[in-house]
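Input record (one chain):
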Amino acid sequence: MIYINDAITVNHSGTMQKLIRKQFEYFKQDEFLFTNDVYGIVGFCIENDYYTLTNFTEVRDYFGSKEDVGIFKFQPANPEDIHSYVQGNEMIKMPINSKISRITLINEHQRLFKNSIQIYDVQLTRGIIFKLCDGLEISFEKDIWLSEDITIRKGHNLIDKISHIDTEGWDDEYNFVYDRQSIVFE
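The corresponding structure, as predicted from the sequence alone:
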C-alpha cells in the first residue's frame, strides 16, 4: 500500500493556534477573472506578521503515475514573498480589519481499493476557514489534486460550501472512499 501525507496537521500547525484573537489586517490575492479562484498563492497580514497559503505543484505518486500535484502549505513569510505568480499581474489587497476567533482546517482522508484491497492511503488539507469576531468567515479551498487554484469565499457556514469529491464512475475493480476531519483552533 502507498501512504501519502500532505495534510497540515495539529503537530505542525502551531502557527494556527498563535493566530487566534489576533487582528487579521488583510489578505492579498490575484484579481478574480471569471470565478472566485486565484492561482497558487494568497498572502496574509495578521498583526504585522506575514504568511502565505500556497498551492503549487510537486511531483507525487498520483494513483499509479508520477504527476504534478498541488500541495497546500500555510507558512510564515516575508512581505516580498507575497506576489503574483502570473506574469504581469499585481495582487490586490482585501482589507479585513477584524480579530480571528477561530480557524478550521478541513483535512481529507482518501482511500483507494482494488478488488477490496486498499492500495492507497492519502491525507491532504482541503481547506482553511477563518472565522472573524464579527461572525464573517473567509475560506480558502484547494481544488482537485492536479490544480494549483485556490477558491476564496466570504460568508457564513462556509464549511457547507467546501466541494465534495465525486466518488462515482470507478469501474467494478476499484472503489474510492474519503472522509473529512475538521481541526478547530479557538
